[in-house]
Input
Amino acid sequence: MLLTNVNNRGVDMRLAAILIAAVGFFPFGPVEALELVGRARIVDGDTFAYRDDRVRLHGIDAPESSQHCLDAAGGDYRCGEVATKALEALVAGREIRCSGTDRDRYGRLIAVCWVGGREINRWMVGAGWARAYLRYSNIYDAEERDAAQARRGLWAGSFEAPWDFRRARWNVAVSTPPVPGCPIKGNISANGRIYHTPSSRWYDRTAIEPSKGERWFCSEREALDAGWRAPKS
Output
């Protein structure tokens, strides 16, 4: 992985490390235009991991890892996993180039990404495996209309918009934990301190034991500040 200032592509890895450290002081909001180049691990249908840095694809919203949808025949399937596999097939282990100027409140670079000359954000919406995230941008609105008309991907059957799925899961979970309004599970395992939101794939399987130092959080920002991290899938 190589992190560069897009105005100086000759920057070396030592300067890249300085840039990463500098960004750490600004966990969200505008940053100097940055570019990430290299092979990345796909977290889900709209998120990549470059070593210790994460990228959230700009302008799109893919189904959550735990989300289920209905196919054309009315059968249930794990659409979040299928969307992730579609992205994995597109990337196929090749080098990804991402460029962005903003970070979200979780420190993820909000970026447009390319693989093999193809824009990934646009492809995911056009293939029907992600929605155009109109709350933040209408740049992929035409691709979404085309995918819906052609009944590609998610549009072949029926599904809940990812943002509605997250909201519904949060509203259910927020009234059930020991601390009202704080449904995020802060788990401690051999993999470290990991937090799970209600839309996480492992949320329902995770039990919290305060005697072991595990705890509940009211927001992802609170969990991050306390030293917990998001799950890798």
